Amino acid sequence: MSVYRSASRKRWRYDFEHCGRRHSGYCLNLDGTPAASKAQAKNAERRARTTVEVSPERSLAIATDPTLAEAMVVYSDQLAVGAHGANQRAYVRELLEWFGPAQPIKELEIRVRDYITWSRNQQIRIYTGGPAAVGIEGSAAWKQIPRKRSDATINRYLDALRKAVRLYGEQRDPATGRPRLEWLPRIPELKEGEHVPRPISDGEIERIVDASRTSWPWVADALLLASHMGFRRGEMLGITLERVDLEKRGVWLRPEDTKAGRGEFVMANRTAFEVLNRRCAQARELEIPWLFWHQRKTKDGRPAKPMPIRNIKRSWRQALKAAAVATPYRFHDAKASFVTRIAMRGKATVATIMELARHRDYKTTRRYLQVADAEKRRALESIAAPEPQSPTQRSHTRGRRRTRKSP
Hints:
CATH topology of the largest domain: hpI Integrase, Chain A
Strand content: 5-15%
Radius of gyration: 28 Å
Low-confidence stretches: 56-63, 131-138
CATH superfamily of the largest domain: Intergrase catalytic core
Distance between the termini: 104 Å
CATH class of the largest domain: Mainly Alpha
CATH architecture of the largest domain: Orthogonal Bundle
Shape: globular
Number of helices: 15
Order of helices and strands: EEEHHHHEEHHHHEEEHEEHHHHHH
Largest sheet: 3 strands, antiparallel
Number of domains: 3
Structural class: mainly alpha
Helix content: 40-55%
Mean pLDDT: 83
Strand order of the largest sheet: 1-2-3
């Protein structure tokens, strides 16, 4: 049977053989939507057969052609063990499921556009908390929301596919000493919308901290650390006692915990150091290694065992509501506040700001500095209408003109 309905994914798939190679994938209509009937699925399978038969690269496929599974093995071996590595492994699972492990690398370029079309129609799943041991599929910890993937999200999957093929192709064949791939398939990169970080104002930060101090104390302390040290959310929630250096007044981050994949030392100012010192003292008192935890109560009202906090999205939204902050800030906007305040209040150079923000590329730092660009503000004010003068100012000006001496 060349067309069938997948019971696990609840979608129509095609599966046929051509020139000694098996080809499979999801059945899509011309507009990119999944096939809703067997007739639509057969039409999609017919188009896939036509693409295979007219492609000049198909005639080059032989039984020993490298497959996507081989490339993904090489790619998976170099993934980090942190949260970013977990995301990349999720990309690998989906790519292998969609293209199939036996997908020849030579033929990826033909099918990648179909994958992009399919991916654009996938609804987003968000983590709602709780155990996620069975992964994204079928887990009660994940909820599907009525929003489809953006091109920025799809680029993460395409980037994993591109890197896997490149890493495999750069390897040398032990028999011939030549690269495993003579040419690499072209994996497109979609154009992304550039998000401009929106800094949280000082007054709003103060209101959020005050509103969350009692019910969500971890939100208050996390916001203070992010806005005074420039932490990303994942980096901060993973801090343990052994990484806090009270003598050097800062936090040591491991390479697997940072976005750049490098070890870093994050300095703390006076406000952040007070938070770190207090958090460390409380963690030692509870005999736990984490700096951010929550402690619920049992049915009889006694404190339960402290548990580490992995995500604060829900409590962050509740804190915004309690503080009557209408703007739907992301927690990452606290990092924008950190960069913007240094640029507006201090006398730091752009290089210093870039170092403190821990950005590799100046383009990233420039996005954060748009709000704090003093030169642009002066240029705008130069064409503004002059401020109206008060009667006292006008009288003072006329008086000065009357007493002015002639040359």
